Structures are given as structure tokens and as C-alpha cells.
From TrEMBL:
PANTHER family registered for this protein in UniProt: CYTOCHROME C OXIDASE SUBUNIT 2 (PTHR22888:SF9), CYTOCHROME C OXIDASE, SUBUNIT II (PTHR22888)
Cytochrome oxidase subunit II transmembrane region profile domain mapped to chain residues: 32-127
GO molecular function, one term: copper ion binding
Main subcellular location: membrane
Name of this protein: Cytochrome c oxidase subunit 2
Species per Swiss-Prot/TrEMBL record: Reyranella soli
Length: 286
């Protein structure tokens, strides 16, 4: 056994021990990339389901076009080989063929455009969202503002590697943050995004089918509705400067009860009054 292998095994044992000793995360790690992954992540939102099915349609169209062009090419090489055509043809045009190769691509583009635009508008506008989260890209971290829950703001920064190993060893390197965006499962959440400072950022979570370029002075809208509890990850997808690669996006999807408790905790920390149902509140806590 060579030294490198011993070190590798030791490393695995140490990281397994750390993983065991590290604080267990309440939700499972769901939306992370896997080794040798070549395709999309599994769809975790209705938008991503539609992105995948559009991708499936495009793949069929692209494959058919490639096979057709390859077949034409092979046929042309064979049919018009010099040995079979000692004297070259003098044909200059063919009206039927020219109309066909103009109209058929137009029809193919229309077939692609209709579901594309339908999906674009579907992903752009939240229908009956339960609440809104305002995402702000900063240099180089994210802030999540919850205006409908008392207007508190959460700052989400990458965990230094030593802290990740101690606190969130299950999260892959460069994806762990101190404070995740927290949302309840099965709830439509409108995401509006902007940026401060002098650069754009990209709030992108592949498994959610969301990729919002956030721009200073502008608000962009999208929405998510995640079925399953868990941790989901993405990364800034717009080159934004020095620490672009160190501003991961982490979303924790929890049950509605846990979300309500988390909101109360954040409101308390921000010095905001707890949510009170005024009609049912007792005089003592009015
Ligand atoms: Cu960036």
C-alpha cells in the first residue's frame, strides 16, 4: 500500500468521523450535484419539471435534425463521388427544394417557440404566491428579505472551510452557508431579485429551474414551490468579481410549523413584534 493510498483512507476515516460527530442537519441534503452527473438534477419544482420536458422535446428535434443532415451528407458523398460523376452537374437552383428548406426550418422554429414562450411566462409570474422573498445580491453574499413576515432580513454568507467541516460536514465544499434561505414546503413563494453595489449576480438553483439575473436598480421576478423538505443548493451564475465563486445559494425547505417557528425566532432577533392574531389575542399579549 503506497503512502498516498494510506493518506486517502485516513482522510476518509477522519471525514467520516467528523461527519458522524458534526451536528446532524435537520433536513436531508437533496439538491446537490453528483459525481459524473451529466444531465439536469431531478426536478424539485413545477417549473423545473416543465424545463425538463421542454429539454426532452428539444433533444428529440435536435437528434432528428442531426440524423437527417448526417444521412444527406453520407448520401451526397456517395452519390456525387467523382467516380460516379465524371462530368459535374450544371444545376443552379431548384425552386421546390428552396421553398422546402426555408419553410420546414420555420415550422421547426415555431414548434420550438410555442412551448418555450409558454414556459418563459409560466416561470416568470407567480400565481397566488403565499408570500414574497426579496433576494439581493451583494459583493459577495446574498441577503434574503421577508417583507410579508415583518420585514426581517437574513444575511447568507459562505462558511469558511474549517467551520463547514465542524458545523455542516454533510454539505459539499463551497456550498455551505451560515444562514440558508428558509421556505415552507409545498408553498408558492414569489422571488424578487435585485442587486446592490456595482455588479450583477445570478440567483440560480438548478433543481428549482430558476436562474434570475439580479441587477442594481431593477427587480426581476420568479417563483418556487418545492415539494420535499431538504437542503438545496445553487451558485451565483453571473460573473460578479473577486469572490464570485464564494457566494453559494443554499435553500432549506422545511415544514410549515418549522418555518413559522423560524420566522418568530428571526423576528425576535430583529427586534420585531411577534405575529399576533389580534382578534384571538388575550388582553395580556395585545
Ligand atoms: Cu457572481
Amino acid at each position: 500500500m503506497n503512502g498516498k493510498r494510506v493518506l486517502g483512507i485516513l482522510g476518509m476515516v477522519v471525514s467520516a468521523a467528523l461527519g458522524f460527530a458534526g451536528s446532524a442537519l435537520a433536513q436531508p441534503i437533496v439538491g446537490v450535484p453528483h459525481d459524473w452527473q451529466t444531465n439536469f438534477p431531478p426536478p424539485f419544482t413545477p417549473v423545473m419539471e416543465k424545463v425538463e420536458s421542454l429539454n426532452g422535446l428539444l433533444l428529440v428535434i435536435i437528434t432528428l435534425i442531426c440524423i437527417f443532415v448526417l444521412a444527406l451528407l453520407i448520401y451526397a458523398v456517395w452519390r456525387f463521388h467523382a467516380s460516379r460523376n465524371p462530368s459535374a452537374t450544371t444545376t443552379t437552383h431548384n425552386t421546390v427544394l428552396e421553398i422546402a428548406w426555408t419553410v420546414v426550418p420555420i415550422l421547426i422554429l415555431v414548434v420550438i417557440a410555442i412551448p418555450s414562450f409558454r414556459l418563459l411566462y409560466y416561470s416568470d409570474k407567480a400565481v397566488d404566491p403565499a408570500f414574497t422573498i426579496k433576494v439581493t445580491g451583494n459583493q459577495w453574499y446574498w441577503t434574503y428579505n421577508y417583507p410579508d413576515q415583518g420585514d426581517f432580513t437574513v444575511e447568507s454568507r459562505i462558511l469558511p472551510e474549517a467551520d463547514r467541516i465542524k458545523q455542516k460536514p454533510q454539505v459539499p465544499r463551497l456550498l455551505a452557508v451560515d444562514e440558508e434561505m428558509v421556505i415552507p414546503k409545498g408553498t408558492t413563494v414569489r422571488i424578487i431579485g435585485t442587486a446592490v453595489g456595482n455588479s450583477m449576480h445570478g440567483w440560480t438553483v438548478p433543481g428549482f429551474g430558476i436562474k434570475k439575473t439580479v441587477i442594481p436598480g431593477r427587480l426581476n421576478e420568479g417563483w418556487i414551490n418545492v415539494k420535499e423538505e431538504g437542503f438545496y443548493f445553487g451558485q451565483c451564475s453571473q460573473i460578479c468579481g473577486d469572490n464570485h465563486s464564494y457566494m453559494p445559494i443554499a435553500v432549506r425547505v422545511v415544514s410549515k410549523d418549522v418555518f413559522d417557528k423560524w420566522v418568530e425566532q428571526k423576528k425576535k432577533a430583529a427586534g420585531l413584534a411577534p405575529a399576533t392574531d389580534f382578534a384571538s389575542a388575550t388582553p395580556a399579549n395585545r
